[in-house]
Specification:
Double Stranded RNA Binding Domain, 3-stranded antiparallel beta sheet, 16 helices, alpha+beta, 405 residues, 3 domains, DNA polymerase, domain 1
C-alpha cells in the first residue's frame, strides 16, 4: 500500500533500521534514532541498485515521488542515476567558478609543470588576446559549437590561420579537461576540422625542394664559420634552431651514434633522441676538434649564454640572399616534405620532428618508438643530401673558423 503523510508521521524507530515501501521501488528508511531517508530501488544493467533521494521531512512524499520519476527517466535513457548525481554535485560545487577563463587558467596551472615556461606564457597571452574577450566570461555549459566557430573564424579572418588552429586546439584541450572533471558534458571544439581553410596557411619560410642543390652550394661557398656548421646540422638532424645552438657535448653518445636532447631543452619538455647519420657524425667530429673542451658545441665567448646566437642562422641565410625565402625552421619543413614525398611513414617522420602527441601515454612510449626506422631514415636522407651536392661533407679548415655571437 502506498504511503501517506499521516502514515509517515506515525512511523516509530525500532531496534534495527527498517524500510517502509511506497510505490515504484520508492521506500522510506527509518533509522534507530528516528531519522528518515528516502531511497529508491532500481535495476541498472541487470544489477539491483539503491539510490538515496533525500531526508524526510525536508523532502516531502510528493517531492520524493517526483525525484523517483526523474531518476527512472535517467535509467530508461541508459544513464546511471548515482553517477549523474555525483556529476551534478561537482557542477554545483563549481557554480560561479566555471567560466571558461577561470577553468582555462586552472588548466594552464595544472599543465605548467609539463610545459616549457616560455610556451606556457605564450599560450596564456594568446588566450588573453584572442579567446577570453569573446567567451572568457561564459560558463562552460553555455558555450556552444557556434561560439567556438566564431572565435576561431575571427582569428582566421585576420590571416593568422596557424594561430587560429592553435587556439582551436587549446579550447579543445580545456574542454576535455573540464569534461573529465564533470564540469561539462561535451566538447564543442572536438571536431571543427572544416572550419578553417586548408590553403593559404602561413608557415615558416622554406624553399621548394627543387631549390635545395643551389642552397647547399651557397652554404658550401660561405667563408668558414659556425653558422655553416649549424646549417649543415639543421639539414641533417631536423632539430629546431634553439635546440641546436644550445647543444652540449655531454648530449652526444658517440657509441650509439645518437644525440640525446634533455626535456629541459625541448619545446614540449619531453626528451628527444636524434639518430646521427655518418654525415652528421662527421660534422660533429670536426666541431669537437674545436670546442670539445667546452660545455657547448657551438661555444661563443662573446655570448652570455656561452653559445652561438639564435639569430645567427637566420642572419646567415639573409646574407646568402634567402631573406623571406628560408629560415632555420625551414630545414625541418624541407625534410618533412621530401621524406613524405619519398613515401616514408608519417608517424616515423613526425616522431623524428618531435611533434607533440596529445596522448600522454603514447607520447611517453613514442620517445624511442620507431628508433630503428628513424636511424635508417636519417641515414637515407643524409645520403640523399650528399647525392644532391657532393660538397655537403667538405668541411672548412678548422683554423679559419670564425665565432659568431
Amino acid at each position: 500500500m502506498a504511503l501517506t503523510e499521516l502514515a509517515i508521521k506515525n512511523l516509530k524507530p525500532r531496534d534495527k533500521v527498517y524500510r517502509v515501501a511506497d510505490s515504484g521501488g520508492l521506500a522510506l528508511e527509518v533509522s534507530t534514532t528516528g531519522g528518515r531517508l528516502w531511497r529508491w530501488r532500481y535495476y541498472y544493467q541487470g544489477k539491483e541498485q539503491m539510490l538515496a533521494l533525500g531526508k524526510y521531512p525536508a523532502l516531502s512524499l510528493a517531492e520524493a515521488r517526483k525525484k523517483r520519476d526523474e531518476a527512472r527517466e535517467l535509467v530508461d535513457a541508459g544513464k546511471h542515476p548515482t553517477r549523474e548525481k555525483k556529476i551534478q554535485k561537482l557542477r554545483q560545487a563549481h557554480d560561479g567558478e566555471n567560466s571558461f577563463e577561470k577553468i582555462a587558467r586552472r588548466w594552464l596551472e595544472m599543465k605548467g609543470d609539463g610545459l616549457n615556461a616560455k610556451y606556457a606564457k605564450q599560450c596564456l597571452a594568446r588566450m588573453e588576446q584572442h579567446i577570453f574577450p569573446r567567451i572568457g566570461a561564459l560558463p562552460l555549459t553555455d558555450i556552444t559549437i557556434p561560439d567556438v566557430v566564431e572565435v576561431v573564424e575571427a582569428i582566421g579572418k585576420r590571416g593568422t590561420i596557424v594561430t587560429a588552429k592553435r587556439m582551436k586546439q587549446l579550447i579543445s584541450q580545456i574542454f576535455r579537461y573540464s569534461a573529465q572533471r564533470g564540469l561539462c558534458q561535451h566538447n564543442p571544439a572536438a571536431d571543427l576540422r572544416d572550419v578553417l581553410p586548408s590553403s593559404g596557411e602561413k608557415h615558416h619560410a622554406c624553399i621548394h625542394p627543387s631549390e635545395l642543390p643551389a642552397l647547399i652550394t651557397k652554404i658550401e661557398a660561405r667563408e668558414g664559420d659556425f653558422t655553416q656548421y649549424a646549417m649543415k646540422l639543421l639539414m641533417l638532424t631536423f632539430v629546431r634552431t634553439g635546440e641546436l645552438i644550445g647543444a652540449k657535448w655531454e648530449e652526444i653518445n658517440w657509441d650509439k651514434e645518437e644525440w640525446h636532447i634533455p626535456k629541459e631543452r625541448m619545446k614540449m619538455k619531453r626528451p628527444h633522441v636524434v639518430p646521427l647519420s655518418s654525415q652528421a657524425l662527421a660534422v660533429f667530429r670536426e666541431l669537437h676538434a674545436m670546442t670539445g673542451d667546452k660545455v657547448h658545441i657551438f661555444h661563443s665567448p662573446a655570448s652570455k649564454s656561452m653559445h652561438m646566437s639564435n639569430g645567427a642562422v637566420l642572419m646567415g641565410l639573409r646574407r646568402m640572399g634567402y631573406q623571406g625565402k628560408m629560415t632555420g625552421h625551414g630545414f625541418r619543413t624541407l625534410a618533412s616534405t621530401i621524406l613524405n614525398e619519398k613515401g616514408y611513414p608519417p608517424d616515423v617522420i613526425e616522431r623524428q620532428l618531435a611533434h607533440e602527441d596529445e596522448d600522454k601515454i603514447r607520447s611517453a612510449y613514442n620517445r624511442a618508438e620507431y628508433l630503428l626506422e628513424r636511424k635508417k631514415m636519417m641515414q637515407d636522407y643524409a645520403d640523399y643530401l650528399e647525392g644532391t651536392n657532393k660538397g655537403l661533407l667538405e668541411l672548412p679548415n678548422k683554423n679559419k673558423i670564425k665565432h659568431f655571437a
